[in-house]
């Protein structure tokens, strides 16, 4: 295993980038702790795969350094980095059996036959392919082949890191849950540094100890699932994490009060004077129907089983709240209360810390 450090890293696919807009990855400093289980989460095109391929050595960054355990590997080939990588679509040897595919990385490194057999059986059980070990890969389905790719990526115990690039795309939904559970178990057992790229927040939040959220080539927040939910550091995190995502309102903020379209909304703390585009954000879980508050027009109510989602509009913007079981759903004009202690304040999309937290937290 190894701690992976990205120092002043940036990348452009242009030979002569003319400005920040030409960079697929904006300059960043980031550390992946030795033995951590990370998800790299973001929308398509935000730079996730580019970043993963730089770590693996498939892409050389335009600037900056990549270090494994303090050793500079920026220009070292993939083979010298001692990593395993699993791609979005299956990469298998069709002429080999499942057993031979799983054993290949171990035999290629000269491991003894008894160890290879034991490890192959262990991984085959993990991916649910014990009964297919002696079948050729050529005749298997796409999701079965991807399970082989996953198994081959995980069969070695001596790697610095295992990198997963949206590996469950072709896997059926039930098996996705099974394999994510198995990956977490593998991490607990062997402590590999794991980086799992996905655009699916459910995959990210159930797999990782820490989630790294990317937006437009930047890392906008790294945190636990709870931190991403409670205190999104960027409006994109608030929007992207949660279903529905965070509600946002343009506002003027003065001290402990936000003014939204002429209506005062109490905040849970005092804030400094702010410049730029100021907004307040709150999760649908912390919005409730009330006699006083922000006026909204309810457009529809969706029953999703455990709760209902009330969809509304306020000042030309969509607003969502979750209705607890048994609570009557309003129709037409109504008002909403925002729980003050759950409101976050943003200036130009970045979270502003309340006064008293300006240093430290």
Automatic annotation (TrEMBL):
Cellular component terms (Gene Ontology): ATP-binding cassette (ABC) transporter complex, substrate-binding subunit-containing
Keyword annotations from UniProtKB, A to Z: ATP-binding, Cell membrane, Membrane, Nucleotide-binding, Transport
GO molecular function: ABC-type ferric iron transporter activity; ATP binding; ATP hydrolysis activity
Residue ranges occupied by any ABC transporter domain in the UniProt entry: 4-241
PROSITE patterns given in the database record: ABC_TRANSPORTER_2
InterPro entries xrefs: AAA+_ATPase, ABC_transporter-like_ATP-bd, ABC_transpr_FbpC, ABC_transpr_MalK/UgpC-like, Mo/tungstate-bd_C_term_dom, NA-bd_OB-fold, OB_MalK-like, P-loop_NTPase
SMART domains for this protein: AAA
Keyword ATP-binding carried by entry: yes
The family this protein is said to belong to: Belongs to the ABC transporter superfamily.
Protein name: Carbohydrate ABC transporter ATP-binding protein (CUT1 family)
Annotated source species: Cereibacter ovatus
